[in-house]
Amino acid sequence: MQFWDVLKYLAPACIIGHAFYLIYYAIDLYQFNPFVKLKPLSEGEEDFLADNFPIYKEFSPQMKAKCHERIIWFRSKKHFVFYGNTDRSEDLKLLLSATIVIMTLGLRQYRMMRSLIRIIVYPSQYYSKINRRNHLGEYNPNFKTIILSADKIWEGFEDLMDNKNLAMHEFAHALSYEMNKNNSWQGRKFRVGLRRIEKLFGEEDFNVKLAASQYFREYGLTNLQEFFSVAVENYFETPAIFKNDFPELFEELQVMLNMDFHFNKEGRTFRTSLES
C-alpha cells in the first residue's frame, strides 16, 4: 500500500478522533467517565487539609466524611491542567478541590456541572490571549474554566485572616454562574440572595459604611460580581468580624450558602442543614 493510500484512511480517522476529543470535554463527558479512578485521601492528605483549612478541624465526623467524599470526586473528575514548571501539582489539586468543596458544603449540588470543567494553573502571572493582558487569576464562563497562578494560590493560604484568597475568589465567580443556571430550590434561593445583595450594594448608606469600614478591599467595589466574590472570601476567613460589622450581608450569605458559623467562649463552630 502506497503512502498516499495510507494517508487517505489515516487523515479522516485523526480528524474524527480529534472531534470526539473536543466533544468529550465540551459537553462535560470527562466528569461522567466511569473509568476515572477515585483515589481516597491518605492520612497525610487529611493532615494537609487540617493545616490549610482551620474550619476543617471543627467538622463533626459525619461532616468530615461528606467533605472527603466530595473532595475525592472533585479531584478525580475535574480536569486539572498545569503549565510550565508548576511545583507540587498534586498538593494544588487537593487544595483547590478542598476549597470549592468547603465553600459548597451546605449545598446538595456541589459538582459545578454547568459552570466548571477544567482548572488551569500556571506557575505565576500569565498572559491572557483573550483579554490581552497579564493575569493572576480569572474565570471564563464560556469555556467553563478557571485559570490561576500557583504562587498566588499558595499566598492565599499563608495568612488565613487577611481576606485575600485567589482560589476562593475565582471559585465564587464560578459558583455564582452555576447557581444562576440552576433551577433547583437552592438555586432560586441563591438568586434571591444575590438580588438582595445587589439592592444593598446600590444603597448610598451601605456604600458609605463600606468605605468607612475598609473591611472589604477596594477591588470588591468594582461591581456586584466582584463584591460577591470578595464577600465570600471574608465570610470564610473572618466570619466573626463580618457578622459583627455587616450582619445583614452576613445573613444573606449564610442563607445562600446554607451554612453558618456560631461563636462561643471556645471559638467558632460550623454547621449546615445537611449535616445529618
From TrEMBL:
Q: Which Pfam families match?
A: Peptidase_M90
Q: Any coiled-coil ranges, and where? A: none
List the Gene Ontology MF annotations in alphabetical order.
aminopeptidase activity; metallopeptidase activity
Which of UniProt's keywords are assigned here?
A: Membrane, Transmembrane, Transmembrane helix
Q: Which InterPro entries match?
A: MetalloPept_cat_dom_sf (IPR024079), MtfA_fam (IPR010384), MtfA_N (IPR042252)
Q: Which residues cross the membrane?
A: 7-27
This protein's record includes keyword Membrane = yes
What's the superkingdom here? Bacteria
Task: Look up the record and report any one GO term of the cellular component aspect.
Answer: cytosol
Please name the SUPFAM superfamilies in this protein's record.
Answer: Metalloproteases ('zincins'), catalytic domain (SSF55486)
- The name this protein carries in UniProt is Zinc-dependent peptidase
Give the species this sequence originates from: Maribacter algarum
